[in-house]
From TrEMBL:
Residues 26-143 form the YbaK/aminoacyl-tRNA synthetase-associated domain. One of its GO terms (molecular function) is aminoacyl-tRNA deacylase activity. This is YbaK protein. PANTHER family: CYTOPLASMIC PROTEIN. It comes from Azorhizobium caulinodans (strain ATCC 43989 / DSM 5975 / JCM 20966 / LMG 6465 / NBRC 14845 / NCIMB 13405 / ORS 571).
Length: 154
């Protein structure tokens, strides 16, 4: 599986343990992932891709939060809009439901939900709707180079 391999290689290149696990029950949504992993929905670090012109903006958010696009735009200085699944796959190399925070096929502007910083461990998608990897919020910041920001919809 090429996308999962890209995530594995990105983790390895960053000296992060290969903590990728597969779950036959699926991890497509935050609720599915939490049920599969056996953690709280908030501990799922969901990756949402927005579109700023032709550039992807990745927000890694707590699974229990909805994202406020106005806050994302304010922090990045970019006008962001939802991205359709075909565009997400074309740009990042990941299908919606398996978008990882690392291993993208292109450069991405990344924000990390400030609410994730209080949780440990967190689980993030690893390239498919059935794969996740265990990490910490601090490692997500290190791995992605993302800025920590308040992106939660109030």
């Amino acid at each position: 599986m090429e996308a999962v391999d890209r995530v594995r290689e990105a983790l390895k290149a960053a000296d992060h343990p290969d903590s990728i696990a597969a779950f036959e029950s699926g991890t497509r949504s935050a609720a599915d992932a939490a049920a599969s992993v056996g953690c709280d929905v908030a501990q799922i670090a969901k990756s949402i891709i927005f579109r700023a012109g032709d550039e992807p903006v990745l927000v890694v958010a707590s699974g229990s939060n909805r994202i406020d696009r106005k806050k994302v735009a304010a922090v990045t200085g970019l006008a962001v809009k939802p991205a359709d699944p075909a565009w997400v796959q074309e740009k990042t190399g990941f299908a919606v439901g398996g978008v990882a925070p690392v291993g993208h096929a292109c450069g991405v502007t990344t924000l990390i939900d400030a609410d994730l910083m209080a949780l440990d461990p967190v689980w993030a998608a690893a390239g498919s709707p059935m794969h996740v990897f265990r990490t910490t919020p601090q490692e997500l910041v290190r791995l992605t180079g993302g800025a920590v920001a308040d992106v939660r919809q109030d």
